[in-house]
């Protein structure tokens, strides 16, 4: 399964945001990597700004180019504001939902749990991270995976994350999608309108 496997810190420094999770490097080096990282920034073109925002969103959700573009096409065909619908679809991916529930500390770890068949959706084992969930869907840790150290550590360190569109049953280690998240409930620092403008060219 294809995914980004390059240097994570370099990407975080490029956007000056913890794209792949918290990193101490940003506090020490809050400028892009490379010999010209500290140099004076040149004014970016409108296209460059839009492209950078799209790339940032891709890295945040761990999606490759074609997959992201296909998601945008689907979002543009749905009712509602395209940018918000796009973010709702990205948030409703199975790997992201596992991360949001606190079952895994990062989206990469969540993807790994899904691929290795530790996660169930509506009582069935699902090993496809890109599955889109709907309101009412239940996401649970597989019975024989509940004792996994990685899962218990994640839940004990950060607990089940609190989001209005999700609910969590700690005893059963099961979460439920109440509804798709409105824009104000999506914490990612993404200007979705720039992405819409990029694909509208």
Describe it.
With about 200 residues, this protein is of the alpha+beta class. The chain has two domains: about 90 residues, Ribosomal Protein S4 Delta 41, Chain A, domain 1 (Orthogonal Bundle); about 90 residues, Structural Genomics Hypothetical 15.5 Kd Protein In mrcA-pckA Intergenic Region, Chain A. It has nine helices and five strands. Helix 3 packs across helix 9, helix 4 crosses helix 5 and helix 5 packs across helix 9.
The CATH topology of the largest domain is Ribosomal Protein S4 Delta 41, Chain A, domain 1
Could you state the order of secondary-structure elements as H and E? Answer: HHHHHHHEEEHEEH
Structural class: alpha+beta
Overall mean confidence score, pLDDT: 87
Fraction in helix = 40-55%
Distance between the termini: 30 Å
**What is the general shape?**
globular
CATH architecture group name of the largest domain: Orthogonal Bundle
The proportion of residues in beta strands is 5-15%
Fill in the keyword field for this structure.
Structural Genomics Hypothetical 15.5 Kd Protein In mrcA-pckA Intergenic Region, Chain A, 201 residues, 9 helices, 5-stranded antiparallel sheet, single chain
Compact description:
This protein is α+β, with helices and mostly antiparallel strands. It has two domains: 8-89 and 189-199, Ribosomal protein S4/S9, N-terminal domain (Ribosomal Protein S4 Delta 41, Chain A, domain 1); 93-179, Roll (Structural Genomics Hypothetical 15.5 Kd Protein In mrcA-pckA Intergenic Region, Chain A), CATH 3.10.290.10. Helices cover 42% and strands 8% of the residues.
